[in-house]
Amino acid sequence: MEKMKAVVFYGPRDMRFEEVERPVPKEGEVCIKVKYASICGSDIEEYKIGSDRALPPLIFGHEFSGEIVEVGQGVSKERIGQRVSVNPILYCGKCFYCKKGLINLCNNRRSVGRTLGVEKKRCDGGFAEYVCVPEFSVVPLKEGVTFEEGALLEPLAVCYCAAKAVSFEKGENVLVIGSGPIGLMIIQFLKIFGSGKIVATDIMDFRLDAAKACGAHEVVNVKSESIEKAIEYTGGIGYDRVIVTAGAPGVINDSIKLVRNGGSIILVSLIREEVSINPVSIVGRQLTVYGSYMFTTEMQDVMDYLADKRLDVRNIITSTYNLSETPEVFKDLASGNSKDIKVLLKID
Fold it and tell me: DSSP string covering 249-298, please?
């Protein structure tokens, strides 16, 4: 059996660069030679604590791009040579939600780079030289879209959906809680969509600097100032919408305080703890609380923004490392001391 280089997760804080068997495409699958893979915040969380979403041994990587080099039975050989990204949502296509086009809510779905799904089957991802995926998950890259940009199509689609959720209207004042990669990409889309005042929060000054570069008008460091300072930028009224990308449980109640009466709260981050809220605050103020999870077909929409140069991800990508460096990169990112925002892995 032919071998390849890959980075394998063996449990919390145990990630190894090693040789593994190269996958062979099954019927209906394609084999992709990975060019670039992006590290997601959820990858870092799974690395730190683990969960049933990432049962080891597992190859992470659900944000990546590459070139199709082999196809399985039933797939046209004309696919070989295509530059592609991948939609990591491996939906069943048969259930109630899939028939409605809501593939992100499919109860039978699996996910590339995770053990998500009813059967918890291993589904290796793009932190490897090669990866096999179903043909239906392939998203061909348009001319002018680079492999580096292609590796960010997945998180960009997540952010696109979050930014336009709940009938976005031009001129809305928006607070983005959390200026990590997801928050920064959301800010770029808000600017493109014609948002009014955009205010961003975080605990790291370098991230807030990036938020300004992406289009935020004002920023608040909630480590040195109260988050409630942000309401001053609305004249005390509150925000038309508050988008939550930070993972601290307290931000849920913060968002309720800072949204205006009749406004919307969009939850993007996967907060893993129970939170106590007072429902009267929601009902009595007629608030909308919306969970924005993944996307459906929006990778294609994002592709247009990249191809037309309306979207620039260069100020979000802060470092590029070789695949062999991945275990050390994860140690650094998990330490809390890294000043990287979005990291790419180059797969030679």
Answer: TTHHHHHHHHEEEEEEEEE-S---S-----HHHHHTTT-EEEE----SSH
